[in-house]
DNA sequence: CCATAATGGAACACTGTTGTTCCAGAATGG
DNA sequence: CCATTCTGGAACAACAGTGTTCCATTATGG
């Protein structure tokens, strides 16, 4: 009985989330009316799915967390040298698009990492890079993590403003991240 | 007659601007009441100096432009190699503090440079670096400029969140900018 | 075809911000 | 000491965003 009903609900919900990502990434101060309009949905309907603004933000956070985890899995961060793993991670994260802006501007806060804290798995990754000589030992893990995010955000906003190709922009990001973290000479 | 009067006015005005930099850098959506409170000034007084919110933003933009120009002059961007000049520029800009956040988040837009456009003097600087071999020729000037800003913002937010020393943070910024822009191998 | 679910519009109260006016008190220069 | 200036609090209307309720309309499964 709930087959197509539930399907419809899920689809509407997803449409709202997708629109929210897009709208809030461009303008963090956008109103719920803007989000509803972008999702082609009445404001009433939006409130039916997400009673309060905070409910929407929580849902966005969960969605973001899930996608980040998927990207990390795809990047196989446990393989190869530290730098190579970071390079793959960079590529996977880059495809997340609007998510980057939201997370970077801390519109949507991830629960497991307060600002100034580094993910454990990422810290391990950097340590591996320190050990195998592909990441400068002078750079702390938390710094490398911040650097990665800032470069991804840079790439994404570059893509939006300048009319550069996605491919070329990704190349620049990878090039600069690699140069920034590898040991000098 | 207007000696101390004008002095007082200038002092109040400056206090408001300083507070606005600080408050808006931390929270771009801060209300005028917040700014007034931070400046230890009644909201009425704030409106007396800056009738509308936009007037305050214009004043902030002018102040920012002036300080940026001063920093650029101090950095003597016409001397040395391209990379060395960028390094000095980085050092000078880094000291601008809250200004960085505001400019980077585009709360305050500079008039002479629309997003996606590169300052002429900066483009020349990068070209010089391309020619003297200290900046990778694969990196376009506009990208280097964006990179510089994103790294400065990174450094500044790192300073706020992590409890790192100003000196150490600047070292990390300079280290990573240099690594990012110099030619590989 | 019909009952149920989903939707969107209209209207409402509530809140916080903005910009304004008015006035009384404090500070300052002469 | 007095006149001028600067200040800040109170009160106000206007406005935008939020969250809610109610109702009519549209789909959809059975």
Model description:
2 copies of one chain form a homodimer. Chain A is elongated and about 60 Å long. Helices cover 70% and strands 0% of the residues of chain A. Chain A has helices at 3-26, 32-38, 43-49, 53-74, 82-94, 98-104, 120-132, 141-161, 166-181. Chain A contains 9 helices and no strands. The mean pLDDT of chain A is 93. The first copy, chain A, folds into 2 domains: 1-51, Arc Repressor Mutant, subunit A; 61-181. The first copy, chain A, is mainly alpha-helical and 185 residues long. Chain A binds chain B through residues 29, 105, 115-116, 136, 138-139, 142-143, 146-147, 150-151, 153-154, 157-158, 161-163, 172, 175-182, 184, and chain B through 29, 105, 115-116, 136, 138-139, 142-143, 146-147, 150-151, 153-154, 157-158, 161-163, 172, 175-177, 179-182, 184. The structure holds a DNA duplex (30 and 30 nucleotides). Chains A, B: InterPro entries: Homeodomain-like_sf, HTH-type_TetR-like_transc_reg, HTH_TetR, Tet_transcr_reg_TetR-rel_C_sf. Chains A, B: GO terms for molecular function: DNA-binding transcription factor activity; transcription cis-regulatory region binding. Chains A, B: Keywords: DNA-binding, Transcription, Transcription regulation. Chains A, B: This is TetR/AcrR family transcriptional regulator.
